[in-house]
Amino acid sequence: MPYVVALSGGIASGKSTIADLFGRLGVPIIDADIIARQVVQIGSYAFNQIVKHFSQEILLTNGELDRSQLREIIFNNDHERLWLNDLLHPIIKQETQKQIAMQKSTTYLIWVVPLLIENNLHTLADRVLIIDTPVSLQLARLVKRDNISESLAEKMILSQVSLKKRLSYADDIIVNDGNLSSLTTQVNLLHQQYLDSFKK
Predict the structure, then answer these.
(1) Which keywords annotate this record (predicted)?
(2) What CATH code is carried by the domain that includes residue 43?
(3) Residues 6 or more apart in contact with residue 183 via CB below 8 angstroms
(4) pLDDT, tens digit, for every residue of 132-191?
(5) Does the annotation flag 12 for ligand binding?
(6) What is the CA radius of gyration of the chain?
(7) Is 170 labelled as part of a ligand binding site?
(8) What's the average model confidence in pLDDT over 105-127?
(9) What's the domain range around 74?
(10) Number of structural domains found in the chain
């Protein structure tokens, strides 16, 4: 089994960019967000439960989940957000563990998991890598990326643990202030560190 480095950070902190930089170095990436999309495809158990809970109104005309509507609901209602998390978390966790077990010929892999601390998943990793991003930068990115109001973006950020708490779980930290060159340097250094540390 390869060593598992859990990569986490607040919403819009740059997880995908950093995972991509590791991926370019040949490191396998297992992304909980991608798995989360896979497990709610039309006809899946999770998809059926979501439609049953929220009714057909939660669907687009093509039959897929209306993600923007679902996002509005869950970030304006803690009860609904917790319900959805309780449904999806065990399914995503099971699929993640399955994908990790399939990676046999690599020294380590990056496991991208947004709610690492919130869902108490850090215990499943050998090492925790946290992204340190200013909240102001997260907010600006989120508004632009998802084309949402600043108010909704703030609610999405506040629904997660604070940066201070997240950093308290970190074995390693990447500072993301929007400088791609700096990110690349930090990733390259960590990659070498992990290869040296995890050699069997």
Answers:
(1) ATP-binding, Coenzyme A biosynthesis, Cytoplasm, Kinase, Nucleotide-binding, Transferase
(2) 3.40.50.300
(3) 14, 17, 18, 21, 174, 176
(4) 999 999 999 999 999 999 999 999 999 899 999 999 999 999 999 989 999 999 999 999
(5) yes
(6) 17
(7) no
(8) 93
(9) 3-198
(10) 1
